[in-house]
């Protein structure tokens, strides 16, 4: 979904249930039916209505009220059901014209397949669909990670749902790194990926 805040708020709110449960329930006068609806939601939005808030060379022309109204089109409960929110700043021309760096796709793909296999060998399902009881069983952080989570709960006012999503995300980050134990760096990275949802 591109330009996420431009969608009708009621439409976005309807996505909460399938994002949470992987099912959609439709009820009519004499009939109710449930359909499977597990999907991956990828969405994008500008930082403000004009799109230039924080741009290195162009000035934003939005008022603070316009920016607030734009961002509050997405409710807290809707945002709570998203795992990752990453801010992607505008690139300057030097960075845009430079040769790309980083790993090639085949290397990244293999690391993902390895992490997927580890998760399935451990719990017979992906980390993203673990239940609360399964999170307690398979996503236990070490002491340093637990202390970091405690601080994050206090400072960021994470909900129980957000807390569990951070743990599942940290479990995945640890799996990608080839680590059996969820440690503080894994939790810190998972928290950073949720900072944009606050």
TrEMBL record:
Transmembrane segments: none
Magnesium chelatase ChlI-like catalytic domain mapped to chain residues: 1-95
PANTHER family noted in UniProt: COMPETENCE PROTEIN COMM, MAGNESIUM-CHELATASE SUBUNIT CHLI
Protein name in the entry: Putative ATPase with chaperone activity
Entries under Gene3D superfamilies matching the protein: P-loop containing nucleotide triphosphate hydrolases
Domain Mg chelatase-related protein C-terminal residue range list: 102-194
GO MF term list: ATP binding
Pfam families (UniProt xref): Mg_chelatase, Mg_chelatase_C
